[in-house]
Amino acid sequence: MRLSPFLILLGGIALLSAMDATIKFASETNHTLIVTLGRYVFGAVFAFAIWTRAGSPAITLDMWRAHALRGLVIAISAVTFFWSLTVLPFAEAVAYSFVYPLLVPFAAAAIVGEPVRATSFAAIALGFAGVLIATRGAPSFEQDPRHALGIAAVIVSATTFAVAVALMRARARTDGAPIVGLLATLLPGLIVLGPTLAFAPPPRWADWPVFMLMGALGASGMYLVARAYAAAEAQRLAPVHYTELLWASILGYVVFRETPRPEIFAGAAVIMAACLWSAWQARRIVAPMENHP
């Protein structure tokens, strides 16, 4: 039986949400740098298997150079988001991270020269209004400085992830998915290796299965996401990504005994509406151009 792209993507998002929950769990007993390194080391093992299965396409020196900057940006995005999971409830961190699609047009404009539409400015204003709604009821900086810093860390992570997406657009068509996927795990791992050895204590032996699970969930989730996008248009699949908040809420409650504030869901709804409206506006503008003889 052939599954629809929507169900395949839903499964991919569920696996990636489970990976984030595993990261949050591992961060309770391990330094953030160790968790980040483990995510990319074990992720690289699975990405290497996918690259090998694809026929081991050649990776040129130019590709290494081009992906080095993206590797650094991904490493920054991962470290800041993983650290935020140590101080924020799972669903809350995920809700704030939804702003990244609103930032992609601005990153793409700076990196690949894509024009920024006026609707992007309106969408990002609406999205950050959603962030402000989600922060209502949260502890103040004076009450809990780490909570406020956690929110800031998610915003930094979303911003750098948007830059990483824009950089991927510049290379994906020429390099191919297996190479992009391999370098997106291998290079961030190499970048965080030095700081990890210098500042983080080694993981406990009992946590090694958790790190292996982390890598397997990440690679499997990304494989399903890639399959889904190979079978359907990105615009049609975009809303499925917001099921991540559902998975995060379920996993947060079951695994970490967290109950998100109502403001989290209200703010996330506004952020999602901004993203979907921006995507719809982009599609409405591009469709007539695609159909023009």
**Spatial separation of the terminal alpha carbons:** 38 Å
Sketch the topology as an H/E string, one letter per element.
HHHHHHHHHHHH
Query: What is the percent of helical residues?
Result: over 70%
| Rg measurement, Å | 19 Å
Regions with little confidence, pLDDT below 50 for 5+ residues:
286-293
What is the overall number of helices? 12
Give the strand tally.
0
Principal-axis shape equals globular
Proportion of β residues? under 5%
Largest sheet properties: none
Arithmetic mean pLDDT = 83
Structural class: mainly alpha
Count structural domains: 1
Give a verbal description of the structure.
It is a single chain. This protein is mainly alpha-helical and 293 residues long. It has one domain. α2 runs antiparallel to α8. The C terminus is likely disordered.
What's the short version?
The chain has twelve helices and no strands.
Task: Produce the secondary structure layout.
Elements: H1 5-27, H2 32-53, H3 61-87, H4 90-97, H5 100-112, H6 118-135, H7 145-175, H8 177-199, H9 208-231, H10 234-237, H11 244-256, H12 262-291
Summary tags:
293 residues; disordered C terminus
